[in-house]
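Retro notes (design track)

What went well: tokenization of the new backbones is finally stable.
What didn't: we kept losing track of which sequence belonged to which structure.
Fix going forward: every design gets posted as structure first, then sequence, in one message. First example under the new rule, 315 residues:
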């Protein structure tokens, strides 16, 4: 079924590229500018440096003194707390990548990795502040309100997932499952130069992969826009579900009511869209299922809608 879907989508995009080259080129340029000017300079340094930290085995030592805090609040180990912190600060898809890397390097168990995937993959504070609040919403919404809704819904989602994962069995220290080994990380040489080289190669491989997904989904979004001329709320929801950044831009230019725009923007940031989901799947080892991640995103979206409606009515 997946092969059929990929084949159909690929053929449709090829036809679109051949018959509508101007729109295809414009969308591809837009996607590549996003990758080159924003993702590459912001995410690549984090990818390289976090790779170095994981390979030098210093994560647990630095976060272990606060182990009781990580366990009581988040239900994770000190190593897992690293994915929580950097996933929150760096944004999509760093939380998922760090979780997968920690699992691959045997720093966390499979159960903890699956649990971490449900609440470490979020939009970065910088993206929310600069793009969502100021660019898309024109500064018409309070930053405190936006962050309260997003962080509050994320925390409540984490509690729901924690109850689900730990309703039976023990804590995060459950035994390890068999771990895959990345080809670029099999070198027995642990010298600083080798560690840095491996981290750089892994970082460039990851960021290049993200660029490919952004390119393809930018063209796919342009294709859908070309054939779907509707200006209804359904069309904007579809664009947001395909690709978060371009979807939010379309939403900002729409004639929808401000409160509808606001709610749709919050749900879009929480879900991330199909492009983010595809990026996440590509960065996470096949040994980890993406179903808990998808379930957590739906729960998070539902919670943020309920919080929005509650505060909008009360306040």
């Amino acid at each position: 079924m997946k092969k059929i879907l990929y084949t159909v989508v690929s053929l449709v995009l090829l036809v679109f590229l051949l018959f509508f080259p101007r729109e295809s080129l414009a969308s591809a340029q837009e996607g590549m500018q996003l990758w080159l000017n924003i993702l590459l300079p912001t995410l690549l340094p984090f990818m390289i440096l976090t790779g170095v930290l994981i390979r030098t085995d210093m994560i647990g030592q630095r976060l272990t003194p606060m182990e009781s805090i990580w366990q009581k609040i988040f239900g994770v180990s000190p190593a897992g707390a690293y994915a929580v912190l950097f996933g929150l600060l760096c944004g999509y898809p760093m939380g998922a990548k760090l979780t997968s890397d920690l699992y691959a390097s045997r720093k966390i168990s499979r159960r903890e990795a699956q649990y971490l995937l449900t609440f470490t993959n979020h939009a970065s504070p910088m993206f929310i502040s600069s793009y969502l609040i100021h660019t898309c919403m024109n500064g018409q919404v309070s930053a405190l309100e936006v962050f309260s809704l997003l962080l509050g819904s994320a925390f409540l989602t984490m509690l729901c997932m924690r109850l689900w994962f730990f309703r039976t069995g023990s804590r995060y220290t459950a035994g390890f499952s068999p771990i895959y080994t990345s080809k670029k990380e099999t070198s027995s040489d642990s010298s600083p130069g080798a560690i840095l080289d491996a981290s750089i190669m892994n970082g460039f491989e990851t960021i290049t992969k993200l660029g490919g997904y952004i390119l393809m989904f930018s063209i796919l979004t342009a294709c859908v826009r070309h054939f779907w001329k509707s200006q209804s709320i359904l069309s904007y929801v579809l664009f947001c579900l395909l690709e978060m950044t371009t979807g939010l831009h379309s939403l900002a230019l729409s004639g929808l009511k401000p409160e509808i725009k606001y709610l749709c923007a919050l749900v879009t940031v929480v879900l991330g869209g199909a492009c983010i989901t595809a990026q996440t799947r590509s960065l996470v080892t096949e040994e980890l299922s993406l179903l808990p991640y998808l379930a957590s995103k739906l729960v998070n979206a539902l919670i943020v809608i309920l919080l929005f409606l509650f505060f909008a009515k009360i306040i």
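Added context from the reviewer: Residues 236 and 251 are 6 Å apart (CA to CA).
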